[in-house]
Design a protein that fits this description.
Elements: H1 2-25, H2 29-57, H3 65-87, H4 93-109, H5 124-158, H6 164-168, H7 172-204, H8 213-235, H9 239-263, H10 267-272
Length: 273
């Protein structure tokens, strides 16, 4: 049943992405809402699949790279669906939904490692650690998408090349504001997630800091976003520089989230490879 749910979810995300690509070039509101509804249906099936797997494993199913990518795709889609209702920025789905499809397909290509059941994962600390970090990363993905849109829109304005995308993309001010608000909410969530992780590591491994590769890269990513937020609040970084930093920051998220798991070994990769 889990595999059926995952297939339906993946197909739904693909169909939603096709709809949003069409909407990127055609201002058809019906296409947007149909795509939004398809993504919602996919998220429901996806959530059911993860719930079934989690109940079978007796802990939240995020202990392998494949599971982590799948879970991140779900959090990303749900975050976008909620943000869309709040901000009414329909075009954002044209940039976010392809990311969800990429993560789902990558998840299906990675080996389905069998992780032994362990009491380490059966803790509310793990759920809090994972949920806050994944939600923060989803918001950073939205900031990344807004940053890409900002650079595209700025390039059109700079070169006075007012094509179809110019009329479809939001204003530079609105895109910069979305980037900022995602950072403003995502950074505290990331901070809480890391602090919870360090606290729980102190209980499990007798030390909150173990020079684990994922810990190191996570702190580097945190510093990137801390610098961006600090410069925005104190120096007034906006526009192009902030857009590029959002892209750099999310690239660091991907390296920390996936690259470290596949290449380096440590406490985390013992469980998530």
């Amino acid at each position: 049943m889990e595999s059926v749910f995952l297939v339906v979810a993946t197909l739904s995300y693909c169909m939603g992405t096709v709809g949003y690509v069409i909407y990127l070039y055609r201002d058809w509101v019906q296409v947007h809402w149909a795509s939004w509804g398809i993504l919602l249906a996919g998220a429901l099936f996806h959530g059911a699949a993860i719930a079934v797997r989690s109940m079978d494993k007796e802990h939240l199913a995020v202990t392998s790279s494949a599971e982590g990518l799948s879970f991140f795709a779900l959090v990303l889609v749900v975050t976008y669906l909620l943000v869309q209702v709040r901000l009414q920025l329909r075009i954002l789905g044209s940039f976010v939904s392809p990311l969800a499809v990429i993560f789902m397909l990558a998840s299906s290509l990675l080996p389905p490692d069998i992780i032994p059941k362990s009491g380490v994962f059966q803790s509310g600390w793990v759920v809090l650690h994972v949920s806050t970090l994944f939600l923060a990363n989803a918001l950073f993905a939205l900031a990344f998408s807004a940053g890409v849109m900002y650079l595209l829109q700025e390039r059109q304005i700079k070169h006075k090349s007012f094509g179809k995308l110019y009329n479809r993309l939001p204003s530079l001010d609105r895109l910069d504001a979305i980037n900022y608000y995602c950072l403003l909410i995502g950074f505290p969530l990331m901070t809480v997630g890391l602090l919870v992780g360090f606290t729980y590591a102190g209980n499990v491994w007798r030390s909150p800091w173990n020079w684990d590769p994922k810990e190191i890269f996570a702190v580097i990513t945190w510093v990137i976003y801390a610098v961006l937020l600090h410069e925005r609040l104190t120096v007034g970084w906006r526009g192009r520089r902030a857009a590029w930093m959002a892209i750099v920051g999310f690239s660091a998220v991907l390296v920390t989230f996936l690259g470290v798991n596949l290449v380096l070994k440590g406490h985390h990769t013992v469980f998530v490879r």
